[in-house]
Structures are given as C-alpha cells and as structure tokens.
Design brief:
Blueprint: E1 3-12, E2 18-19, E3 22-27, E4 32-37, E5 47-55, E6 57-62, H1 79-89, H2 94-110, E7 113-120, H3 126-131, E8 135-142, H4 151-166, E9 173-177, H5 185-194, E10 202-206, H6 210-218, H7 222-229, H8 245-250, E11 259-263, H9 269-279, E12 283-287, H10 289-296, H11 302-307, E13 312-314, H12 327-337, H13 343-357, E14 375-380, E15 393-397
Parallel strand pairs: 1-5, 6-7, 7-8, 8-9, 10-11, 11-12, 12-13
Antiparallel strand pairs: 1-2, 1-3, 3-4, 5-14, 14-15
C-alpha cells in the first residue's frame, strides 16, 4: 500500500505535545500508519512544509441551516433582538437556502474543519450533510418557549425532523434542548426519556445574555417581553426555586450523559463549579467568541474556566452571527483578547477536546497511530511564527 510521508517545522498532536524532527506516515485512506523520527524514513520521498501541522479542526457548534442569513442581522443588538430576527426572518426561497448551505459546507472544509456539531431545527441541511466529506453530528434542537402545555406538541413536531435525519438520510444525531430560558420542565423530561438509551452527547446553549439571569432572578425582563410579543402567556411559565439558569437546566438533565454547554458567556466561578460537580468528566464547554462579539459584544472570562480545569472546545455558531466559519479565526479572536491562553492549549480546544465533546475521539482529534484525523498546515504569510496567531496566519488542509 502506498503511503505519504509528511513533516513540517513543528507538529502539534492535539493532546498537548509539540513534536519536532518527526514524520507522519499516512496510508492512502488518510489513516496514520505511524509517527517516526526523520532519521527513520531514509531516502523515501518526503513532503516538507514550512509552518506547523495540526489535526483537522472540530467545529463543536454550528447552525449550518442558517447560512442563508449571512449579513441579514445587525451586530450588537443583544441576544433577544437576535432571536427575534432569526425567528421572523429565516424563511427564504428553497434554492437560496440550499445554495448557502452547500457554500458554507465547502467553506468549512477549506478551513480545515473535519467534524461539526451542528444544530438543526428543520431538515434543510440534511442533503448537504449526507454528501459532505465532513463528519456531522446533528443536534435536533427542541424548545417550547417555557409553554409546558405545548411541550408534547413541540416534541412531536421536532421528533419528525429527528426521524427524517436517522431514517431518510441515515445520519448521526439526537434530540437536545435549546436553552434554559426556552425549555419547560416537561419538555426536558421528554428529552431525557428520548435520550435514555442513547450514548450520544447532549448539547445546550447556556448563559449567553443578562436576560437569562433576569428571568430566573426576577421572573421578568426581555425574555418575557419577547415571548409576550409572540402572543404567549407567561403568567405560569417561569421556573421557580432556581437561583440561576444553569442550575435549572442541569437539574432537569442527565449527569451520566456527555454534556456540551455552548457560549457560557456569563458563567462565573460558582456556575462552573456547580456544573463540573454535577457532570464530572463528561462535561465540555464550547466557546464561540466571534458570535459572542457579533451579538452581545462580550466574551466569556476564560480565566474562570482555566482555573477550574474545565474542558473547552471551539465553535463558530452560524453565518447569521459570524463573519466566517473558521475555527482558526476563532482561535485568533481568543488569542487577541485573552492572551493568557497558550497556542498548544488552543490547539487542544480546536481538535481533541472538540472530538471528545462529540464522542469522536477514537477516530479524529489527535495525531495518533490508527486515527484518520485529517492534517492541517498552518503558516504565516509574513514569515512569523504561526503560534502567534496573527491575522496573517493561514490554514490549508493537506488531506
């Protein structure tokens, strides 16, 4: 069997190691046959690159189906205005929706992304996912806007989407809650029952905006105003007895599941400690920094997560709330605004941790023998060290 032998100035394996003077030996199907010293390859043809090699990137949170809404929603409006715009403006011609989804899928592949944790409310993206070289795990996201009397109806409606995903398209995925402020206790129970015999991870948006804190502390605020503006009755929908959104949500979820919390912009040390104690080793925190800046002009305090030893991964969110679908661009944003985080740490967030969050770490996420993780080349157009994550750093997938 033919093999490729690839090397570069440095190789980051995704699990915290920087390898120098090493060569990655690849089989034709992209499987890593071995990682050896340069002295062991003899005179065999060797692909040498200036820059660094990493595993393929994992986009742990995206909304591919919203790709047609690029530039349709203003920046800096706050989450509730953003949600209203998405709900009321997402309809478009089918051809427009499908073309945008295909273009976004190609953009991610070109940006070295090999797997995506993708949110779906409808089935618009399923055909593209079925045809893509990217591995998608689809989270069919459910919400009832805290209208517990409507929980079963909403569950049944979204369950049709889930059945189409698994049946018609034979794609991997499962049902998940949207966010603490949009899922009633009854719908949470229906979701727990649905996932009881599944080994899939469970994803949820978490603590993105002060409005969520207002809802649980006062029973009012922008979220109630939004729901009432949609014609909903909120007189009996506010969960009582919970001091924070994350406590309400997690106490209605299953701690034995791999749990993926997304955004977490307003999480403080107490929130992180509570969640880590609740979930143990199966908890992953996904950050989408560009989307946080796009919608609310704020970022999480990454120091809190680092001090707690939390496992972080990286997502892009959708083109409705971002300028690109690039994990490398997200790393640049983090490095720019939170420079206490090192390059090796961010690479692990972008690769191995994301793979673990999607339960794909046995196949991708790190450069190890027997895996098919994809390989990215990172280099700086200005000749600087790519580890500085300047704007001039580029990515090219080699396989």
């Amino acid at each position: 069997m033919k093999t490729r032998k690839i090397t570069a100035d440095r190789i980051y394996d995704g699990i915290g190691n920087c390898l120098e003077d090493k060569v990655i030996v690849l089989r034709e199907d992209g499987e890593i046959a071995d990682i050896v010293g340069k002295s062991q390859v003899g005179e065999a043809p060797l692909e040498r690159y200036e820059g660094i090699l990493t595993p393929g990137f994992i986009n742990a949170h995206c909304h591919l189906e919203l790709s047609h809404m690029k530039r349709l929603v203003d920046t800096g409006t706050g989450l509730m205005a953003f949600v209203k715009d998405v709900v009321t403006r997402r309809n478009a011609e089918e051809e427009t929706i499908q073309q945008a989804i295909k273009t976004a899928d190609r953009e991610m592949a070109g940006n070295g992304i090999v797997a995506v944790g993708d949110i779906s409310n409808v089935s618009d993206s399923f055909q593209t996912k079925a045809e893509s070289n990217i591995h998608y795990h689809t989270f069919v996201e459910m919400f009832d806007f805290l209208q517990k009397k409507e929980a079963q109806k909403h569950f049944d409606s979204y369950n049709k989407v889930l059945k189409e995903l698994r049946g018609t398209y034979e794609l991997a995925g499962n049902a998940v809650p949207h966010a603490p402020y949009s899922v009633s206790e009854k719908l949470f129970k229906l979701l727990r029952d649905e996932n009881r015999h599944s080994d899939h991870p469970v994803s949820m948006h978490n603590m993105e905006t002060p409005s969520e804190l207002d809802l649980f502390s006062t029973g009012g605020g922008e979220i109630v105003d939004l729901y009432e503006g949609f014609g909903m009755d909120c007189s009996d929908c506010i969960p009582g007895g919970f001091s924070s959104p994350i406590k309400y949500a997690l106490q209605n979820m299953a701690p034995e599941k791999t749990t993926v919390l997304v955004h977490n912009t307003l999480c403080g040390p107490a929130d992180i400690k509570f969640a880590e104690q609740w979930a143990g080793a199966g908890l992953y925190w996904v950050t989408c920094p560009s989307a946080n800046l796009y919608i609310e002009n704020r970022l999480p305090r990454y120091r809190y997560f680092k001090e707690a030893g939390a496992k972080m991964a990286i997502g892009t969110d959708s083109l409705t709330s971002n300028w690109t679908l690039s994990v490398l661009d997200e790393m640049k944003v983090i490095a720019k605004f939170q420079s206490q985080l090192g390059f090796e740490e961010l690479i692990q967030w972008a690769t191995f941790n994301g793979a673990c969050a999607l339960k794909l770490e046995d196949k991708i996420g790190s450069l190890e023998k027997g895996k098919r993780p994809g390989i990215n080349l990172l280099w700086d157009e200005n000749g600087e060290k790519p580890e500085q994550l300047a704007e001039s750093v580029k990515v090219r997938p080699l396989i």
